[in-house]
Amino acid sequence: MRADNEIRPGELAVPLVETTDASLVFIGRIQTPWSSREECPRQGRIDGPICRITLFEPWTQALDGISGYDRLEVLYWLHRARRDLVRQCAHSDPLARGTFALRSPMRPNPIGTSIVALEDVDGTTLTVRGLDCLDGTPLLDIKPPRHRLC
Ligand SMILES: C[S@@+](CC[C@H](N)C(=O)[O-])C[C@H]1O[C@@H](n2cnc3c(N)ncnc32)[C@H](O)[C@@H]1O
Questions:
Q1: pTM value?
Q2: N or C: the chain end with fewer CB closer than 10 Å?
Q3: What pLDDT is stored for residue 128 in this prediction?
Q4: What is the residue-wise DSSP string for 66-123?
């Protein structure tokens, strides 16, 4: 497992800029069975364990109609990922590649996306399968799959 500030041969980190270009709002929190990166799957599986997505107010009203979908696209903020690597080694691959050639969580804007199976909607909480994020990961957005309603 990578240490927080580790740089491997061939990797390159850059200074981070202080300013922000967009102000994102965390609209909820994701509960998963994984509290460490070692335990967490690299990509979610639609038959993976149950996870829960809880929306914060006032965004719960935005869930209207969501129970009609069996699949959803979930976007989340990989809040414990470093953001300064422009070249990095993928898991168990010593060859460093450009960050945008990888789905690594370590990227300038650490946004993760997964297609999940929607199992249940109960008030402000969605029960889903298919995630690959740490317990407590902030929620950015939920969308129906692309071929559905716009
Ligand atoms: C490879 S990323 C893939 C995320 C998403 N499925 C994607 O493709 O955009 C998943 C990995 O990110 C790491 N990770 C998950 N949640 C994180 C968090 N909140 N902060 C930092 N790293 C996280 C874990 O090591 C996990 O195995």
A1: 0.93
A2: C
A3: 98
A4: GGG-SEEEEEEE-TTS---EEEEEPTT--SEEEGGGS--S-SSS-EEEEEEEEEEEET
